[in-house]
C-alpha cells in the first residue's frame, strides 16, 4: 500500500485511501490560497462515483454548490449531461465532478474547469490512467469519419492528458483499482489574495455604484476605459484571459449607459456568450433604481427614459448600431473579420475578447482585425485585464487546463522566422506521433491553426491528434513552423454509405461528398477520394511572400498520385475566392443559406488530380453553371456582387452563351439601338454569365460587372440598383447597362448580331 506524503492524509483501516481526508486537505489548501485543486479518481466507474461522494463530504460543501457532469442519473446534486456542459458558463460552483467514463470531450473539460470558484475542487473520474488511452467512448465515435471506424481512432490526446495529470502541481491522483494515492496533490504557495478593492475614480462619468461593483483594479481600469463610449468615433479593445471579469466590466458599462438613456446593442457568437454582460447590467440597473418593470426578457433590458440593453445576433448587429447606439461585442475573437469590420460603422463600439480560451483566439483577433480597426476613423483605447476574478494568481487548475488543452498555444516569435522564404523553407508531413513526441512542435503548429480560424476549441486538439481522417502539412524554417495546412480525407465511401447520404443521412467529415450527394443529388460523388483543406495559415510575420501558395503547391505535388482531387469549403469573400482560384481551385457550389455566425455564404472549390476527379469536377461545374443564373435571382439575390464576380471568375469551364437570332437582335437593339433589356432578360443573363466566367476575354470595369450581377443576374429593380452603385438616375443606370453590353456583343455576337449592329453604326 502506497501512503500519501501529505501528513494529513492516511489510509483507512480497510486498506483503501481515506478520500474524505484527502479532499479535506486539498479543500483547506485551496481556501487558504483562494485557488482551486484537482482530484483525479481513476479506475472502476461505480467506485469513482462513490469516491466522488467521499470528496464532497470531505470538502464539507453544501449540496447546492456541487454539480455532477455525467450521463449517469440518480444524484441528489445538480446533474448536467456532458454535452450540455456549456450551461455552466457564467456560473460558479465549489465542487464540480466530471465523469470522463462516457461521452468525455475536451470541450466539456474546458467549460467545467472555468466554472469552479476559488477554494473549490475539480474532481475528474477516469478509467485506469494506464488504460485510458485505449478506452473508447462516444466522442471517439464522432472522430471516426467514414470509411474509418472507431477502431481507427487513436488515443494520443488522452495519452498526453494523462502525462500532464501525472506531473502538474496541484493534482491529486487516486488509483481506485489498487487502492493507492499516487499523488496527494499538495501544493502550497505563499500568495496573499487579500487584494484591496480599487478606489472609485474621482473624475468618473459612470455611476459610483458601477465602480463599487468592480472586484479588481484591472476591472475598474477597464470600466474607466469604457467611459469613452459616451462619445462618437470611439472604440475600446478589452483583452483578457478567461475568468478576468471582462464581460462583467462590459455589463457594468452597458448598464451605466442605459441608465443615462442610451441604446446599447450587445452582440456575441451566441446569447450564452453574452449572459454575464446582461446579468451585470440588470443588477446595476436594479441597484440604481433604473430598471424598468417591463424588462421581461433577460436579454432585452429597459431602463428609465429610452435607455435599453438588448442582444442582437452578430449578423444583424452592424445594421442595428445606429447614430445614437453604443455597440458592445463580447467574445469578438470568435467572430470573423468581415463581421467585425461591419461594426466599425457604429459611432461607439467596444470589442471584448478572450486572449486564451476556447471561445476564440485573442491573438488571431489582433493579427487579423486590428489593422482595420486602427485604419478606421475611431480613436482606439486599449485595456487588458490580467488579475483573475474568481481565484488567485498562480491557480494550478488554470495552468493545467491551459497546458492540457493548449489554450496558450502560440506560433514561433517573429524574430526566429522573419527570414523565411521559398528557398529557405522545408515541406514537412507532421504526423500525430511527431506532434505528440515534440511539445514545442505541437504548440507552434496548433498555435498557427488557432490563428487561421475565428473559432478554435479544445475538441480540435483531440481531432488533430486522434482523428484518422486528418493529416497535417507544414513549411518550416530552422525547424520552426511558418505555414501549416490541416487536411481531411474525404470520399472512398461504399455503396451503402452513399445510399444513406443520398436518402438524407448525415456522414461526418465528408463535406464535399455530403453536399454533392444530399443536396445536389449525385449519389456517385462519394466514390472518388479527395483531401479537403480544412484550415491553412501562414505566420503573420511572413505573409505576402507566397508561402501559403507554396505550401498548397507542395501538397498538390505530394497527393497527385494518391488522391482524385483537392477541395476546400469556406465562407466566401472576394479575397479568399481569388486566393484559391490563383492556386488552381475552381468553384463548384455556393450555399443558398448564410452561416449563422459569419453571415457569409459558403463556397466549395475543387482542384482535380485524376481522371475520376476531373469527371466529378466537370459534372458539378456544369451543374453549377446550369443553376447559378436561377439561384442568383432567388436564394442568392442578396449575394454581394463582388463575391458573385469572384466565384464566377473561378469557374472552369467557361459558360458558353447560346442565343437565338431573335435574342441577338434584342440584345443588339438594347445596347446599340433603342431596344429594351426587359424584352428578353434571359439572353442578357447568358451573356453576363459568359463574361463573368471569362472576364479576361472582354475588359469591363468593376462597376459594369457589379451592374451585370445586380441587375441582370439578380434581377433587382432599377432604382435600388442605381442608388447602390452610385448612378445619378435610373436613366443613367440603364444607359450604363447598354454600354456594358456593347463589347459583349462585339466579342460573342453571331453573324446576326454583327448584321444587326451595322444598322446602328
From TrEMBL:
Enzyme class: transferase
UniProt: ATP binding residues: 219, 390
Catalytic activity, as annotated: cytidine(34) in elongator tRNA(Met) + acetyl-CoA + ATP + H2O = N(4)-acetylcytidine(34) in elongator tRNA(Met) + ADP + phosphate + CoA + H(+); a cytidine in tRNA + acetyl-CoA + ATP + H2O = an N(4)-acetylcytidine in tRNA + ADP + phosphate + CoA + H(+); a cytidine in mRNA + acetyl-CoA + ATP + H2O = an N(4)-acetylcytidine in mRNA + ADP + phosphate + CoA + H(+); a cytidine in RNA + acetyl-CoA + ATP + H2O = an N(4)-acetylcytidine in RNA + ADP + phosphate + CoA + H(+)
Primary location: cytoplasm
Biased amino acid composition, Polar residues: 1-13
Domain N-acetyltransferase: 447-559
Binding site for acetyl-CoA: 536-538, 575
Annotated GO MF terms: acyltransferase activity
NCBIfam families listed in its UniProt record: RNAactase_tcmA_Halo (NF041296)
Name of the protein: tRNA(Met) cytidine acetyltransferase TmcA
Organism phylogeny: Archaea, Methanobacteriati, Methanobacteriota, Stenosarchaea group, Halobacteria
Amino acid at each position: 500500500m502506497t501512503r500519501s506524503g501529505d501528513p494529513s492524509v492516511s489510509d483507512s483501516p480497510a486498506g483503501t485511501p481515506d478520500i474524505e481526508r484527502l479532499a479535506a486537505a486539498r479543500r483547506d489548501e485551496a481556501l487558504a490560497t483562494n485557488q482551486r485543486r484537482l482530484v483525479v479518481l481513476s479506475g472502476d466507474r461505480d467506485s469513482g462515483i462513490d469516491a466522488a461522494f467521499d470528496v464532497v463530504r470531505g470538502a464539507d460543501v453544501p449540496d447546492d454548490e456541487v454539480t455532477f457532469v455525467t450521463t449517469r442519473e440518480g444524484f441528489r446534486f445538480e446533474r448536467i449531461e456532458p454535452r450540455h456542459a456549456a450551461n455552466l458558463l457564467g456560473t460558479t460552483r465549489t465542487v464540480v465532478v466530471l465523469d470522463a467514463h462516457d461521452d468525455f470531450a475536451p470541450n466539456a473539460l474546458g467549460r467545467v474547469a472555468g466554472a469552479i470558484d476559488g477554494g473549490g475542487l475539480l474532481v475528474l473520474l477516469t478509467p485506469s490512467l494506464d488504460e485510458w488511452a485505449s478506452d473508447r467512448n462516444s466522442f471517439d465515435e464522432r472522430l471516426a469519419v467514414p470509411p474509418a471506424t472507431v477502431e481507427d481512432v487513436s488515443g494520443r490526446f488522452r495519452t498526453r492528458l494523462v502525462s500532464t495529470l501525472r506531473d502538474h502541481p496541484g493534482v491529486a491522483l487516486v488509483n481506485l483499482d489498487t487502492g493507492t494515492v499516487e499523488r496527494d496533490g499538495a501544493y502550497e504557495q505563499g500568495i496573499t489574495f487579500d487584494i484591496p478593492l480599487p478606489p472609485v475614480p474621482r473624475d468618473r462619468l459612470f455611476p459610483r455604484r458601477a465602480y463599487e461593483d468592480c472586484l479588481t483594479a484591472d476591472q475598474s481600469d477597464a470600466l474607466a476605459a469604457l467611459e469613452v463610449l459616451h462619445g462618437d468615433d470611439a472604440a475600446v479593445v478589452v483583452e483578457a484571459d478567461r475568468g478576468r471579469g471582462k464581460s462583467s466590466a462590459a455589463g457594468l458599462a452597458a448598464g451605466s449607459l442605459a441608465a443615462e438613456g442610451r441604446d446599447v446593442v450587445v452582440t456575441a457568437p451566441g446569447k450564452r456568450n453574452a449572459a454575464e454582460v446582461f446579468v451585470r447590467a440588470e443588477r446595476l440597473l436594479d441597484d440604481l433604481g433604473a430598471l424598468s418593470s417591463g424588462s421581461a426578457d433577460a436579454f432585452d433590458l429597459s431602463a428609465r427614459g429610452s435607455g435599453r440593453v438588448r442582444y442582437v445576433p452578430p449578423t444583424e448587429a452592424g445594421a442595428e448600431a445606429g447614430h445614437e447606439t453604443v455597440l458592445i461585442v463580447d467574445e469578438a475573437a470568435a467572430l470573423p473579420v468581415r463581421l467585425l469590420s461591419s461594426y466599425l460603422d457604429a459611432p461607439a463600439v467596444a470589442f471584448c475578447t478572450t486572449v486564451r480560451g476556447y471561445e476564440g483566439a485573442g491573438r488571431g483577433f489582433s493579427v487579423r482585425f486590428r489593422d482595420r480597426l486602427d485604419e478606421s476613423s475611431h480613436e482606439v483605447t486599449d485595456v487588458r485585464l490580467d488579475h483573475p476574478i474568481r481565484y488567485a494568481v498562480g491557480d494550478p487548475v488554470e495552468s493545467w487546463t491551459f497546458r492540457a488543452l493548449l489554450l496558450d498555444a502560440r506560433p514561433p516569435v517573429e524574430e526566429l522566422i522573419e527570414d523565411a522564404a521559398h528557398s529557405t523553407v522545408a515541406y514537412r508531413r507532421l504526423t500525430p506521433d511527431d506532434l505528440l513526441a515534440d511539445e514545442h512542435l505541437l504548440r507552434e503548429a496548433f498555435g498557427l491553426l488557432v490563428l487561421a480560424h475565428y473559432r478554435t476549441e479544445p475538441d480540435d486538439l483531440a481531432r488533430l491528434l486522434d482523428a484518422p481522417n486528418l493529416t497535417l502539412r507544414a513549411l518550416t524554417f530552422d525547424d520552426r513552423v511558418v505555414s501549416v495546412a490541416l487536411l481531411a480525407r474525404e470520399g472512398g465511401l461504399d455503396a451503402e454509405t452513399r445510399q444513406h447520404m443520398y436518402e438524407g443521412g448525415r456522414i461526418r467529415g465528408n463535406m464535399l461528398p455530403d453536399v454533392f450527394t444530399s443536396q445536389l443529388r449525385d449519389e456517385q460523388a462519394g466514390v472518388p477520394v479527395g483531401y479537403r483543406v480544412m484550415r491553412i495559415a501562414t505566420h503573420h510575420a511572413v505573409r505576402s511572400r507566397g508561402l501559403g501558395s507554396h505550401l498548397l503547391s507542395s501538397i498538390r505535388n505530394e497527393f497527385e498520385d494518391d488522391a482524385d482531387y483537392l477541395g476546400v469549403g469556406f465562407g466566401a469573400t472576394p479575397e479568399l475566392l481569388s486566393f484559391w482560384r490563383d492556386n488552381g481551385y475552381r468553384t463548384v457550389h455556393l450555399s443558398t443559406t448564410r452561416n449563422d455566425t459569419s453571415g457569409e455564404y459558403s463556397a466549395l472549390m475543387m482542384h482535380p488530380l485524376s481522371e475520376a476527379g476531373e469527371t466529378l469536377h466537370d459534372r458539378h461545374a456544369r451543374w453549377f453553371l446550369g443553376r447559378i443564373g436561377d439561384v442568383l435571382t432567388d436564394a442568392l439575390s442578396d449575394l454581394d456582387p463582388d463575391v458573385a464576380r469572384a466565384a464566377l471568375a473561378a469557374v472552369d469551364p467557361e459558360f458558353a452563351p447560346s442565343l437565338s437570332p431573335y435574342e441577338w437582335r434584342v440584345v443588339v437593339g438594347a445596347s446599340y439601338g433603342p431596344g429594351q433589356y426587359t424584352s428578353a432578360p434571359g439572353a442578357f443573363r447568358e451573356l453576363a454569365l459568359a463574361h463573368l466566367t471569362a472576364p479576361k476575354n472582354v475588359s469591363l470595369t468593376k462597376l459594369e460587372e457589379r451592374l451585370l450581377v445586380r441587375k441582370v443576374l439578380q434581377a433587382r429593380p432599377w432604382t435600388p440598383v442605381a442608388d447602390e452603385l452610385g448612378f445619378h438616375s435610373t436613366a443613367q443606370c440603364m444607359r450604363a447597362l447598354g454600354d456594358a453590353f456593347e463589347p459583349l456583343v462585339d466579342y460573342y455576337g453571331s453573324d446576326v448580331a454583327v448584321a444587326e449592329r451595322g444598322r446602328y453604326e
